[in-house]
Fold this sequence. Notes:
Helix content: under 10%
Number of domains: 1
CATH topology: Neuraminidase
Amino acid sequence: MTRQITAEQATPAVAEHGEGPVWDASTGVLASVDMLRGDLLTIDLLRDGTGRGEVRRRHVGDVLAALRPRARGGWVVALERGFGLLDEPGSAGDGPARSLGELWSDEGVRMNDGGCDPAGGFWCGSMAYDAAPGRGALYRLAPDGSVATMLTGITVSNGLCWTPDGAHAYYVDSDTGRIDVLTVDLAAPAVTSREKFVDVEGGTPDGLTVDAEGGVWVALWGGSAVHRYAADGALDAVVQVPTTHPTACAFAGPELDELWITTSATGAGVTDGRAGALYRCRPGVRGVEPFPYQG
Length: 295
């Protein structure tokens, strides 16, 4: 039986295109991005257990596509056409990220979504602004700062998250309408296989996360929902989100028992105070802490 869960609105409509929520246990902060405005949004969940406190905004660059905590503090980030590093406020002020260089010159292609692997590398994939087929790729920033191309021919590179044991990664190219499973040789590094995990119905698969039981939670762009798929691919929970364009989800909070969901006003066609807000629910399972970037 598929469980039905309803998410509550936890913030005002704070983002034009909210994306990429991630929990930083070292600081007690839930971070997300207002991608196309280039802003980092943070909520201090330790100081404000209700999650209804101030959303702090920091401008980082023209585009801020994704980010993950850095083991030495601060963040590793994906900018419009490459990677960068961002210090904690107070150490480098509230200025822009430090770019590690552009990976391509085509202004029609930008970074989109990503995550870190068990070896401490940061992955992020790209897409064309017009979502033209096959123009994206998936990249890995190693802890030593080198960059490898992991996949090519991608259309809309989206959610990426490792299984709790770190053996495989779930990955979304939204254009395929499915979630895939990647087997990765991190020593090479290389993707050694890519197989379909599940076809997603009811919306376009976007950002995703994995819980401690191995369940996969994926946001459905245009579907007003987040789906949970068990490890065998069965749909066993649906989170209803009261706006049309959920973009990504992540477990957060001291107990990792809250699922936070970002949403977008882009394409939603409304200005009702719901599109672009963050939502949350307690789905009855716990998440796992995201792997940090070790560089």
